[in-house]
UniProtKB/TrEMBL annotation:
Catalytic activity, reaction form: A + NH4(+) + H2O = hydroxylamine + AH2 + H(+)
Keywords on record: 4Fe-4S, Cytoplasm, Iron, Iron-sulfur, Metal-binding, Oxidoreductase
Domain of life (superkingdom): Bacteria
Protein role: Catalyzes the reduction of hydroxylamine to form NH(3) and H(2)O.
Record's protein name: Hydroxylamine reductase
An example Gene Ontology molecular-function term: hydroxylamine reductase activity
Positions of modified residues (Cysteine persulfide): C373
Cofactor(s) this protein requires: [4Fe-4S] cluster; hybrid [4Fe-2O-2S] cluster
EC numbers for this chain: 1.7.99.1
């Protein structure tokens, strides 16, 4: 096998041998390559046959399947390959040939690097487009770009042709994140600042993780009045801030921290766990009986909830396990008993005047966006220390699951606003961009001239598309860690450093000194 799409890739170069660091087997990795090659074939077919809504949905499902920590199951991946082939056959009696991914893995390293940025960025974007679609929203610009980008993977092109498509991936992902933001806020309302307890109350409960708000809503409806409490986990935490989800009294709080701690945190817990997206780690024997998947998430031996969205097996398992006999007062990584969320662009921009006045009066000296993924490898404590060391006259905006390193810290307030503000899931990077653009407008300057620094952590492919979006907007001086992607070749890195001054994170002390200079 060969896979180097995520931050924990073996030796920082690539997973080879019989399994990846994430637990994906060589057989599954090979099948995911076959699936990607089939998707390139489907995109090629679309150049001569008009794609339908079903074609685009198939592309999104196929791409989402290959994101890190989504699918470990060769049976369901093979079924997805068959589905892609069937779709190509439905479009044309002479569908185009599949692409052999080994051609890409064995290409010149700069070409492989640019194609990887396009492919991995599109995988991340596919997840966002999929969530928007589940809420009834799609975009012609986003859909057609998947055909263009996938076709490019199969072309024998040079850097001059591929580089603009890398940037276009970022640009289209901005449209895609805006689409998802619109889907979320029109369906569930504008997020409001919300304090979320970390206590798990006694009695039966279900923990919902991943990014899909629609799945959470369906589960909340199906569990209403059944004496079962619902808790969020990982990237589902921001759900508490949406009025139309918040209204359910049995949506109680948040369980656990970021994804990489699940094997430890789920062990021995008398509740059921529902995975709506990544990040699934191979469940241990001790709790695999209480894990459930839905959508494209799949693991051999784990009960899957299909398209009918009948959550009865999850509900029955929660009732059978019965939950804790007494309330359990869990804490965050730093000992806090609550976390806050709900500071999306709607909330932050509603107090924009207050924020602008605070900056003008010198009460707020600097903004940091400390956001992105968490991960298992050492070195991620950088982000905790960085946030702890930010001066009292600065604001920390955050998003995605990396925030669990510091979101239970009480850093006080500035002008009535908390110093740490959680903007939401990784796709809510859209909110951060909206706030940055509004501030730049208010101060009549460019985003790069604002007292704003982005200190990002990456792990999987959604972070890749977000990074490309920031670059496509011309945002410079991003600090990126904990390590640089293995798929960025030396020449591509030089290009990113020269044009965007991307800087690898060093130590919190040195980086803060450099930023606040
Ligand atoms: Fe984290 Fe996993 Fe949202 Fe990623 S849960 S690592 S960036 O999936 O997608 O933030
Ligand atoms: Fe390795 Fe990451 Fe690929 Fe898993 S997803 S096989 S850990 S590079």
């Amino acid at each position: 096998m060969f896979c180097f799409q995520c931050e924990q890739t073996a030796m920082g170069t690539g997973c080879t041998g019989c399994a990846g660091v994430c637990g994906k087997s060589a057989v599954e990795a090979g099948l995911q390559d076959v699936l990607t090659g089939a998707l390139v074939g489907l995109a090629r077919t679309c150049q001569t046959a008009a794609p339908t809504a079903k074609t685009y949905r198939t592309i999104l499902e196929g791409m989402f399947t290959t994101i890190t920590n989504v699918n470990f199951n060769t049976t369901t991946t093979q079924a997805m390959v068959d589905k892609v082939h069937a779709e190509a056959a439905a479009l044309s009696s002479t569908p185009a040939a599949d692409y052999d991914m080994n051609q890409m893995w064995n290409a010149d390293e700069d070409i492989r690097s640019l194609k990887s940025l396009i492919l991995f960025g599109m995988r991340g974007m596919a997840a966002y487009a999929y969530h928007a679609l589940m809420l009834g929203k799609s975009s012609e610009e986003v859909d057609s770009f998947f055909v263009k980008g996938l076709s490019a993977i199969g072309e024998d092109w040079g850097m001059d042709e591929l580089l603009p498509i890398v940037m276009e991936t970022g640009k289209v992902n901005l449209t895609c994140m805006a689409l998802l933001d619109e889907a979320n806020t029109t369906t569930y309302g504008t997020p409001v600042p919300t304090t979320v307890p970390l206590t798990v109350e006694k009695g039966p409960f279900i923990v919902v993780t991943g990014h899909d708000l629609k799945d959470l809503e369906l589960l909340l409806k199906q569990t209403e009045g059944k004496g079962i409490n619902i808790y969020t986990h990982g990237e589902m935490l921001p759900a508490h801030a949406y009025p139309e989800l918040k209204k359910y009294k049995h949506l109680k709080g948040n369980f656990g921290t970021a994804w990489q701690n699940q094997q430890k945190e789920f062990d021995g817990v008398p509740g059921a766990f529902l995975f709506t997206t990544n990040c699934l780690m191979p469940p241990r024997k001790s709790y695999i009986d209480r894990v459930f998947t839905t959508e494209v998430v799949s693991f051999d031996g784990v009960t899957h909830i299909g398209e009918d969205k009948d959550f009865t097996p999850v509900i029955e398992k929660a009732l059978e396990l019965g939950g804790y006999s007494e309330d359990q007062h869990f804490t965050g990584i730093n000992g806090g008993s609550t976390v806050t969320t709900g500071f999306g662009h709607g909330t932050v921009l509603s107090v924009a005047d207050k924020v602008i006045d605070a900056v003008k009066a010198g009460a707020i000296k600097h903004f940091f966006l400390v956001g992105g993924c968490d991960g298992a490898r050492p070195g991620r404590n950088y982000y905790t220390e960085f946030v702890k060391q930010t001066p009292a006259d600065t604001v920390v905006l955050t998003l995605a699951c990396g925030k669990y390193r510091f979101n239970d810290l009480d850093l006080g307030t500035i002008g009535g606003l908390p110093r740490i503000m959680d903007m939401g899931q990784c796709n809510d990077a859209y909110s951060a961009i909206q706030v940055a653009v509004a501030l730049a407008k208010a101060f009549d300057c460019g985003v790069n001239d604002l007292p704003l620094s982005m200190v990002l952590s990456w792990y999987e492919q959604k972070a890749v598309c977000i990074l490309l979006t920031l670059l496509s907007l011309g945002i410079k001086n991003i600090y990126l860690g904990p390590t640089l992607p293995a798929f960025v070749s030396k020449n591509v890195l030089n290009y990113l450093v020269e044009n965007f001054n991307i800087t690898p994170t060093s130590t919190p002390e040195a980086d803060l000194k450099k930023i606040l200079g």
